[in-house]
DNA sequence: CATATCAAGATGATCGATTATTTGTTGACA
DNA sequence: TGTCAACAAATAATCGATCATCTTGATATG
């Protein structure tokens, strides 16, 4: 017997596998902003036909991580200073709503979930053993989980999903900064403080700390973007 | 000479043409929520190969208007009462931010743009001559243009884009209601009032009116959704 | 020297056949 | 009856060839 009957073996499709790979490559900066995404080239690298690649690229494009122009193909979304500022602004606005409503509506289970995810974040080293810091690295996964859990009790899947996309878009900027050698001293305390404010049910403080957290990161990244700008 | 050198003839691709068609069909309710989107069937109806269809469906899926499961194909996104409420909530939150910031930052050009788009909305009959009320009908285009112009001066492309997606998602619910025979008596005055509040630079009033506007529509649609729910 | 024309060549888009996976059906067996 | 394996049909995903469009650069022209 090869498998439990109760377990559904998920056969992932080539298109989504490649989608995930490309996505990670864009998020961790190994695919440079503005770089051409040549379908044939990619298909050879992944040893696949053209169709799955195109599907993956179409998804990335509608998601915002790539750009597409009819008859001119795909390109990794460019980055820019205005882009960073817009992104940061949007993150502040939306996460503020999210955390305020979560503090208002969140139950004990929510409290536990943010506590646990913050704990995990504290315990996870920034750089994994193999030195990887890509979007699939443990720290990044846990980091995102913490931020998403903060707003997860707001009651609006739409808001949560939007914040998730914003987080990813920001992740790209963070990676670029890291590649350029710039990185936070230690955001650990900031996360802790946000957690505390949330557990204390202090919406104003939590929102303020969260906003500062985003803006501080942006300020740091900012110094790098000018040089990369495409 | 076939064309002006200064004019770029836009050669649209089959994939995007079909994307637009399917999109409109979903938004105006001619594709029922939950309905299966059979690739081959669609490809015959449009007299095209499979690839453009798949590309179009992939875009729709990442955009949220369709749903996709690996090896199980595409489906028109279902509707639900919780979905409608979530959507309405998100629209209220985001548009509130948008209009407040626009009132704060908008210049004379913004004032003129909202004035003009409201005027156009007033002058456009709900049902066009051919009786069409689809998302490509004049009224719907003008209606969306008005709502988008209200928040267009907020300074955040991200927010504007998000609101655009939310608007479309809501459009779908409106269409379903209309198909079920339910429709607003006359939202014209509400639009007028919002415009006035915005021009008066009264953020609280504008935000309140906008929120009410959304919620009133939702309340109306609500009665219908239970029966359609998939 | 600047610009226009045009022909490869490169790249993007599409097609229809092929392969993989899921779904539906049948019949053996407890 | 109800369960389950085996098979058949339907549907999804993928491939690689082909067609369409764009880009490049060599040549001609004012």
From TrEMBL, chains A, B:
Entry keyword DNA-binding: yes
Keyword terms, alphabetized: DNA-binding, Transcription, Transcription regulation
Span of domain HTH gntR-type: 12-79
InterPro entries for the chain: GntR_C, TF_FadR/GntR_C, Tscrpt_reg_HTH_GntR, WH-like_DNA-bd_sf, WH_DNA-bd_sf
MF term (GO), any: DNA binding
Transmembrane regions listed in the UniProt entry: none
Name under which the protein is recorded: Transcriptional regulator
């Amino acid at each position: 017997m090869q498998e439990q009957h109760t377990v559904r073996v998920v056969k992932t499709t080539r298109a989504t596998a490649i989608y995930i790979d490309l996505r990670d490559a864009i998020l961790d900066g190994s695919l440079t902003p503005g770089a051409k995404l040549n379908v044939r080239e990619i298909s050879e690298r992944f040893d696949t036909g053209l169709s799955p690649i195109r599907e993956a690229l179409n998804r990335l494009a509608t998601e915002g991580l790539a750009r597409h122009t009819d008859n001119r193909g795909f390109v990794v979304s460019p980055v820019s200073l205005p882009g960073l500022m817009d992104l940061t602004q949007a993150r502040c606005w939306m996460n503020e709503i999210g955390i305020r409503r979560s503090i208002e509506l969140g139950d004990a289970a929510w409290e536990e979930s943010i506590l646990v995810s913050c704990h995990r974040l504290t315990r996870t080293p920034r750089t994994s053993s193999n030195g990887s810091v890509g979007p699939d690295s443990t720290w990044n996964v846990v980091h995102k989980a913490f931020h998403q859990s903060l707003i997860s009790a707001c009651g609006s899947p739409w808001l949560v999903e939007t914040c998730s996309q914003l987080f990813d878009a920001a992740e790209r900027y963070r990676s670029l900064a890291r590649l350029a050698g710039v990185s936070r001293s230690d955001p650990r305390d900031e996360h802790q403080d946000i957690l505390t404010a949330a557990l204390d049910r202090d919406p104003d403080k939590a929102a303020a700390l969260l906003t500062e957290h985003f803006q501080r990161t942006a300020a740091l990244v900012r110094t790098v973007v000018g040089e990369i700008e495409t």
